[in-house]
Description:
The protein has 209 residues and is an all-alpha fold. The protein has 6 helices and no strands. It is a multi-pass membrane protein.
Amino acid sequence: MAHHEEQMTVERWPSHPETASLEGKNKLLGFWIFLGGETVLFASLFATYLALKDHVPSEDHLLAKDLFHLPLAFVMTMLLLTSSLTSVYALYHMKNFEFKKMITWFIITVVLGLGFLGLEIYEFVEYIHQGHTFRSSAFGSSFYFLVGTHGFHVIIGLTWIILLIIRNMKRGLSVYNAAKFNTAALYWHFIDVVWVFIFTVVYLLGVLG
């Protein structure tokens, strides 16, 4: 069934457009259920990493404290946290029926996310050159599984936001696509929160602890 995307004026625009329709409310509910499953997934990956992070073939093999570079991880963290802030600005303008400003802030979010992804790929390449690979040790496998799964979610989030921008660039705002933009932004926040835990548990505790 085709969706009727009614264009609204500022005066008619609801204060909470993301839940102004039944479909929007259902999307939000379904998304929170989905996030519950995602939380269990990452909790399992964190538990696996903590159990295996000290399992290396020999004493001279690279450990977290010898391998990780906190300045690089910190820059990556700042990029992702800033992108979360810019997505908040995007939703603020969405609620004020300012479509062009919303799109601008989502584009900035995408650029920051791509910067994070580029640094993560650079980091993986450096580690592989040093002999820290997925198959080098249990530590390597658990590290790449956890951080790589998060990176895959970043790719999904970026693709999601980019496709929303492209698809709705000429359509303007409606309560139908407002729910979609809101859900994508919430997904992006979830990705950022997971990274904060990765930075703390993997990088910070790995180097300092």
